[in-house]
Specification:
- The protein is an alpha/beta fold and 162 residues long.
- The chain contains five helices and eight strands.
- The protein has two domains: 2-118, HAD superfamily/HAD-like (Rossmann fold, 3-Layer(aba) Sandwich); 126-158, no CATH class.
- The radius of gyration is 19 Å and the shape is globular.
- It starts with a strand and ends with a strand.
- Belongs to the trehalose phosphatase family.
């Protein structure tokens, strides 16, 4: 977790926690006191964290219980979902407008107010990326179960079903 300072006061140097046990639940009181004047930010990965790893990436769907948990989290913390998938896909899969979303491994970010950050450096390499995507698709044509996914600013090769 990261923190965002509340108010307009100048940031202070980080304070050290005296927690010797890495278990946050066992030291929750001390952690809570330490972060009292900060707004916590929670970043969660989609595949394998919010959803189980599945053979077909299109079927990695958010369970109703996990969606409810995200709704509760976003009411208390600034909450973001990060993925290698495209921004459009992750927004469609999660479908909670009040979250921050980072698609294509952070190359394509959008906040709940519609503020967007598109990595211009990545945009200038789209032609090259599309060539790589097409070549990869050609290379795996004969491999049953392999799939190439275009994530706008990145390409994924899925091979779980090979």
């Amino acid at each position: 977790m990261a923190t965002a300072k509340t108010g307009s006061e100048r940031p202070c140097p980080p304070r050290r926690l005296s927690v010797t046990n890495a278990n946050a639940l066992a030291n929750f009181g001390e952690l809570q006191a330490h972060f009292r004047d900060h707004r916590l930010v929670v970043f969660l990965d989609y595949d394998g964290t919010l959803t189980p790893i599945v053979n077909d990436p299109a079927l990695a769907l958010l369970s109703p219980a996990m969606k409810d948990t995200l709704e509760k989290l976003r009411q208390k913390f600034i909450t973001g979902v990060i993925t290698g998938r495209s921004l459009h896909k992750i927004q469609k899969f999660v479908s909670i407008p009040q979250l921050y979303y980072a698609g294509s491994h952070g190359f394509d970010i959008e906040g709940p107010d519609g503020t967007a950050i598109k990595n211009q450096v990545a945009a200038q390499f789209l032609t090259d990326l599309h060539e790589v995507r097409d070549e990869l698709r050609d290379q795996i044509k004969g491999i049953t179960g392999a799939e190439v996914e275009d994530n706008i600013f990145s390409v994924s090769l899925h091979y779980r079903c090979v």
